[in-house]
């Protein structure tokens, strides 16, 4: 097995890293001070986005762009190293137009959008002129089972009329958010997997209200705050339907694989930051006459973190390779595996990092606690761990298991 990247992939990944080191990292404190005190992104962010685009480092994670659409056209597997670099800072993905939920929404529109929908919504997203959100989760029902969704989308002539509540919709209150992909029940009486549809709802449609922005474990995502939304008789034309009526889950499925894989890739970048921070702190902080790095316990925490990251990276690369080769049907088991492995692993490393840093580890002076909280959220968002574990178990569970019939057992015969 050849683990080396192609020349093109290596070149792009190195250019992303060079741009990141030269242009983003030196501004991180400025960015943090801005989002800590003011709404939205600092005004200079657009300048960096323009530069990234001019350098050809734009929409890296979209392999299937049309000839006239802007982007670098990497496969999911090829995107890995660049995504890790972006995962080092919470705002880096946006500079390269590779951030969630926009990239997954672009993929949804690529697969399910009509030519008119693509011209109106996909094109400006690809250009980075607008942003979008995805509204599936509802406060009133257990949304890890998406067939529970009660949000009403009633057909009325040439419109759908939308009523209900959604929450934890990342990016919905962003000043540039222009539309949402909303999941709801178009036929509540149909079979569970045919009740729901996906429609495009422009953000300024009358009757759509942002109730509040939510925090998770006391933190708000500064690049894509998660909002609670109320829909009261919101009307959208039937032409805003994505794909077929009743096929909402099929439409949503196209975004799930890439969305989860890209999150995991970025999380590996966060893990690398945590290891670097632990090394730095352990090398200079002293107790009882020794630096922390001299203690076996600390050495072991860091070495175990390294092993776990390397293991997880291999799993992520394989899942990405499978998704590129076989699509969702061939990759979903491996995507579920990494969706469980990676956030748990990075959360564990963040926990060690808090310990190595002592009190400072929980302060706002390091990113450790926000990485911890982000990983904790990842274990729920995009499907909680337990739902993925259930899917993985089902793949193991073939009919007819029998201990007596197992050729590996050697019962003693008298
Ligand atoms: C930071 C953040 C951002 C988010 N962004 C978005 C977004 O942009 N758009 C959006 O629509 N949603 C978003 N979500 C919501 C997220 O996708 C849902 O929270 C998730 O799908 C779980 O749904 P729920 O909260 O209703 O949990 P519930 O369905 O109520 O489940 C609660 C718990 O029940 C357990 N459980 C559920 N099913 C099983 C099972 N089969 N076996 C064993 N245990 C089980 C699990 O432990 C689970 O955590 C976001 C969430 C967070 C935290």
> Which shape, going by the Cα principal axes?
globular
Indicate the radius of gyration in whole angstroms: 23 Å
Largest sheet descriptor: 4 strands, mixed
Specify the CATH class of the largest domain. Answer: Mainly Alpha
What's the helix-strand series? HHHHHHHEEEEEEEEHEEHHH
- Which CATH architecture of the largest domain is right? Up-down Bundle
- Number-wise, the strands total 10
Small-molecule components bound: flavin-adenine dinucleotide
- What percent of residues are in strands? 15-25%
Low-confidence stretches: none
Tally of individual domains: 3
Spatial arrangement of strands, main beta sheet: 1-4-5-8
Task: Name the CATH superfamily assignment of the largest domain.
Answer: Butyryl-CoA Dehydrogenase, subunit A, domain 3
Alpha-beta classification: alpha+beta
Q: Tally the helices: what do you get?
A: 11
Cα-to-Cα separation, first versus last residue: 48 Å
Instruction: Please give the share of residues in helix.
Output: 40-55%
User: Whole-number average pLDDT?
Assistant: 96
Q: Helices and strands in order, then pairings?
A:
Layout: H1 7-24, H2 28-37, H3 45-54, H4 76-86, H5 92-95, H6 102-112, H7 115-127, E1 131-135, E2 152-156, E3 159-170, E4 177-185, E5 196-202, E6 208-214, E7 226-237, E8 241-242, H8 248-284, E9 286-287, E10 290-291, H9 296-357, H10 368-378, H11 385-396
Parallel strand pairs: 1-4
Antiparallel strand pairs: 2-3, 3-7, 4-5, 5-8, 6-7, 9-10
Q: What does it look like?
A:
Strands 1-4-5-8 form a four-stranded mixed sheet. The chain folds into three domains: 7-99, Orthogonal Bundle (Butyryl-Coa Dehydrogenase, subunit A, domain 1); 132-242, Beta Barrel (Butyryl-CoA Dehydrogenase, subunit A, domain 2); 249-396, Up-down Bundle (Butyryl-CoA Dehydrogenase, subunit A, domain 3). 43% of the residues are buried. It has helices at 7-24, 28-37, 45-54, 76-86, 92-95, 102-112, 115-127, 248-284, 296-357, 368-378, 385-396; strands spanning 131-135, 152-156, 159-170, 177-185, 196-202, 208-214, 226-237, 241-242, 286-287, 290-291. The mean pLDDT is 96. The chain has 414 residues and is an alpha+beta fold. It has eleven helices and ten strands. A hairpin with a 2-residue loop joins strand 9 (286-287) and strand 10. The termini are far apart. The structure holds flavin-adenine dinucleotide (FAD). The site of flavin-adenine dinucleotide has 22 residues, from strand 1, strand 3 and helix 11. The site of flavin-adenine dinucleotide (FAD) has 22 residues, from strand 1, strand 3 and helix 11.
């Amino acid at each position: 097995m050849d683990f080396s990247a192609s020349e093109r992939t290596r070149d792009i990944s190195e250019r992303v890293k060079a741009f990141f080191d030269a242009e983003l990292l030196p501004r991180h404190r400025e960015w943090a001070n801005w989002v800590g005190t003011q709404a939205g992104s600092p005004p200079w962010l657009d300048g960096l986005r323009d530069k990234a685009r001019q350098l050809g480092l734009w929409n890296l994670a979209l392999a299937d762009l049309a000839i006239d659409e802007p982007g670098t056209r990497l496969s999911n597997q090829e995107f890995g190293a660049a995504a890790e670099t972006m995962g080092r800072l919470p705002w880096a993905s946006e500079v390269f137009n590779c951030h969630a939920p926009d990239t997954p929404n672009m993929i949804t529109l690529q697969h399910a959008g009509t030519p008119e929908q693509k011209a109106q919504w996909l094109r400006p997203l690809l250009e980075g002129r607008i942003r979008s959100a995805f509204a599936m989760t509802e406060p009133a029902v257990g949304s890890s089972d998406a067939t529970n969704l009660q949000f009403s989308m009633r057909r009325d002539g040439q419109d759908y009329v939308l009523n209900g509540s959604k929450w934890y919709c990342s990016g919905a209150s962003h000043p540039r958010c222009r539309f949402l992909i909303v999941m709801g029940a178009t036929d509540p009486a149909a079979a569970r997997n045919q009740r729901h549809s996906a429609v495009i709802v422009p953000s300024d449609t009358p009757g759509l209200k942002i109730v509040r922005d939510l925090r998770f474990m006391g933190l708000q995502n500064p690049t894509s705050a998660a909002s609670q939304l109320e829909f009261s008789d919101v009307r959208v034309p039937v032409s805003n339907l994505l794909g077929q009526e009743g096929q909402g889950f099929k439409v949503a499925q196209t975004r799930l694989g890439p969305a989860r894989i890209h999150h995991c890739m970025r999380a590996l970048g966060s893990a690398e930051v945590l290891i670097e921070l632990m090394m730095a702190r352990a090398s200079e902080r002293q107790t009882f006459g020794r630096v922390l790095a001299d203690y076996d316990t600390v050495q072991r925490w860091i070495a175990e973190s390294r092993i776990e990251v390397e293991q997880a990276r291999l799993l992520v690369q394989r899942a990405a390779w499978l998704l590129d080769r076989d699509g969702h049907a061939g990759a979903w088991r491996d995507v579920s595996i990494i969706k469980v492995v990676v956030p748990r692993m990075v959360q564990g490393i963040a926990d060690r990092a808090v310990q190595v840093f002592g009190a400072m580890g929980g302060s706002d002076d390091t990113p450790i606690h926000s990485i911890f909280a982000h990983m904790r959220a990842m274990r729920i968002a995009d499907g909680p761990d337990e739902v993925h574990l259930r899917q993985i178990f089902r793949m193991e569970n073939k009919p007819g298991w029998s201990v007596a019939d197992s050729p590996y057992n050697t019962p003693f015969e008298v």
